[in-house]
User: What shape does this take?
Amino acid sequence: MKISLRLFAMVVAAVVVTAFTAPVWAERGTAAQTIEGLGTATFPTSAKSDAAQTAFMRGLLLLHLFEYPTAAKAFEQAEKLQPDFAMAYWGEAMTYNHGIWNQLDAGAGRAALARLAATPAARAAKAPTAREKAYLAAVEILYSERGTKKQRDADYCEAMRKLAAAYPQDNDAQLFFALALMARNEGVRNEADYLQAAAIAERVFRAEPRNPGAAHYWIHGMDDPVHASGALEAARALAKIAPDAGHAQHMTSHIFIALGMWDDLVAANINAMRVVNVQARAAGKPEVECGHYSEWLEYGYFQQGRYRDARQVLASCAKSLPPAIAWGKEHAQALHAEHVSPEQVSKHLRGSLATMRGIALIESRDGNGAAAKLEVDVADLGAQAAWNDFAVGFAAAGQGDIAQAQRAAADLHAWREKTTVSESDPQLPGYLAVMDDDLRGLVLIRQQHADDGLAAIRAAAQRYDSMAFDFGPPVPLKPPHELLGEQLLRAGKPVQAVAEFEAALKTAPNRSLSLLGLARAQAAAHDAASAATYRKLLANWHAADADVPDMAEVKAGAEAATN
Assistant: This one.
């Protein structure tokens, strides 16, 4: 039955008023509960059996770990064990909202809630405690269809603030409020919100050091270069708290990459891939060497100077992709049960391959290698194809193929022109503009229009500086300050180049190509600091391939300081 928005608002308001009364704890689950491999939490519910409570707790911990498909299955199991278990449906609905990633599967969330009861009022009636009614009232906001998504995210955050204030002993309420703070700006980092979330999560961590949400959200709140050292403790803890969660293993590397700790980043993502592949084999699914964790692993190998290992990660992705796509087509029903389609899986994997190929082209500086020859199908990837255009154009310019670079630049510019707004990623138009100006500038320089080219790249760098920081490998593949520094050095302006490389290292600390450029610029400017910079790069490359490009130069530069 469909109700009017006004009536819906009145119902939710009534529920909220009822919710924020003195806490009434249900009997079951008042003690801390540990799920092996996932961590520990205390979350009392109205579950009528230990089995239903345990299924719920598994879902809760997986929810905190962003293991959304498996969390949904755990909550669904709790629903089967107790069909009127209101919090199980709350939990399942929560798995379809990925706020930090600005993703919401509204249809799946509404369907989950509708299985509990047809209306918000009827659902609230099935929650026997005021606290559970408050949780339900909050999640109803996300799926209400009232206003814009951004407004609903803000309203949900306010509801969670009130819930956390009303139940200060509910540590998970504090954590979900922290998560809502980070999610209320459509996936774009707001430093004040993130730091407040980190402070909340750290307080919970001190009280419940085995709660994975505490370490996880503490990391997310500080995974930028300025603040990351403040969450190193959480990064060291999370992998141990939840060894059976691939995302927990990977998430630690959000701090490691922000601090330029390449050995730790590589180890974290090797562990993440190990966990997900073990689980894939157990579920009868193919092992897929593409995706978020593989992308970070490849990037980390390049920073270590382990180019062969990086290329192998890319080759493994390319090899595993066709059978994975074929499996998805053959198991469409299984995928639909996880709220994805074979087409979505295919696009995700091909997009990842395109990203990994782009990383290889930028980091290897090899326009004739295996990455350049790898074919990537980007036909239906939308604006994501622009990253492929940038990488292809960058490699072509490096090889002196100006015609190919111009074609890629024209394709990239077309994406910029027709992508002026984006609901899925508010920063997308900015990134397209950065890459467009960078590639256009590079082509202009290769065409002997140095001043115009440098001006275009400088504009890209200024735009990049004005954007909110995004965690992870540089989103536009090639940091614009680094590119500007390289071009200034080529133009015989080493002092200006030094400033650009130093700026690049502020947003990507310890990045190897920025260190290489900085050392060269310092040496060209007769700055004795070049030796220390070469030594930092050599430390990155302590396990590098013997034939990594520029190794002889780096060793000689590092030794110059001791002679």
Summary: The first strand starts at residue 33 and ends at 35. The mean pLDDT is 94. The CA atoms of residues 434 and 460 lie 5 Å apart.
